[in-house]
Structures are given as structure tokens and as C-alpha cells.
Amino acid sequence: MKKSIILLANSLRIGPKSQRLGTVLFGSTVSSIIPLSSSATALKNRISRLQQPRTFTATALGISAMTKLFLKSRPGARKVGIVITDGKSLSESDTLREAKRARARGVIMYAVGVGSSINKRELRGIASSRAHVIELTDFGQLQKSIRNLVNNICIGELTDDLKRNSELGTLMSLANNYFNQ
Asked: Domain count of the chain?
């Protein structure tokens, strides 16, 4: 997972006048927040030092923390939240409520489910639309899919201004041994 987020950072145009990326790592609590950053080097160093929390999945808390990252967004920046999970949250209703709040605050939400233990209904409830739900069989597939994910999320049909001016928050919670991949 860490390698996938670093690959994501490498695939973006991170910089002071272009894209910024932040990350929230959570389990039953939010264990680490990396604020939106315009320094790819600093961001990748902080991501590489993250430690996997070995607890349950309180996705609602993670989405709430990710939404707060965007309070420091640049004016006019497109806000994109990417939730990557390999399981089910502790409270589906709380998770869906927080995802709805994030969308109401202008965050375009993507939900990436990895593995066979995902809750498809919950993924659809997190995402801004069904087109923003991505289901993958394993984390090897996530690494292979990063470029397509970046194209779908960051480029798509955006104007040149929005391609340069976007904020991305990633949200990670993994209960298995794929965290360091």
C-alpha cells in the first residue's frame, strides 16, 4: 500500500502551483495525518515512515480527518478524496454519513476496494458516483492500476487550470500484511 501511494505521488504533478497530496492513515482511530503537501520528496519520505495500525476499521473517522485536510485547500482547487480499503468499516451508517458530508463540502470521493472482504454497498455509498468505485482483487493490481487511477481522478475531462490546481487526499486502512507493499 505504501508503495502504491508513493507511486501515486510520483504520477502526479506535485508542486506549489500545481497538485498537492495529503494522506490519512487510520484504524480504530486516526493514527497519522500527512497534510496536503506540494513537496513530493517530503511527502514520499513521510509516507515511507508510516506504521500500520493493527486495529479495527473506523472509516468514518478517517473520512472526517481527510475532509479536514481540505480546509486548507487553495481557493478554486478541485478536492479529490480517495478511500482505499481492504475490508468493512465498524459502522457503515457512520461511514456513509461522513462520506455524504465530504461530498457536500465539495470533495469528489473515490472508493477503492481491494480483495474479497470489501463491502460493495459501502464502497458505492462512499463514492460520488458508481463510476468512482474501483474494485481490485489484490494490492499488486493496485500498483499496476495507479496510472489509470491518476488519469481517471486527476485528468479526465478537466480544464488545464483544474489539472494544475487540484488537491488529493488519500485515506488508508488495511487489516492485512499488504501495508508495506
From this structure: 1
Model pTM greater than 0.90?
Answer: no
43 in a structural domain:
yes
Give CA–CA dist 92/172, Å, rounded.
16
Instruction: Using the predicted structure, report yes or no on whether residue 112 has a pLDDT greater than 50.
Output: yes
Q: 160 lies in which domain range?
A: 2-70+79-173
Nearest-angstrom CA–CA distance, 31 and 100: 23
Look up residue 132 and give its amino acid.
H
Other CB atoms within 10 A of residue 120 CB: 11
Question: Across the chain, what does the average pLDDT equal?
Answer: 81
How far is it, in rounded angstroms, from Cα 169 to Cα 63?
10
107: three-class secondary structure by DSSP: strand
The answer to whether position 181 is within a domain reads no
Half-sphere exposure of 101 (CA within 13 A, CB side): 16
| Rg of the chain in Å (alpha carbons) | 15
Does a structural domain hold residue 180?
Answer: no
C-alpha cell at 87: 475490508
Q: Is residue 123 part of a domain?
A: yes
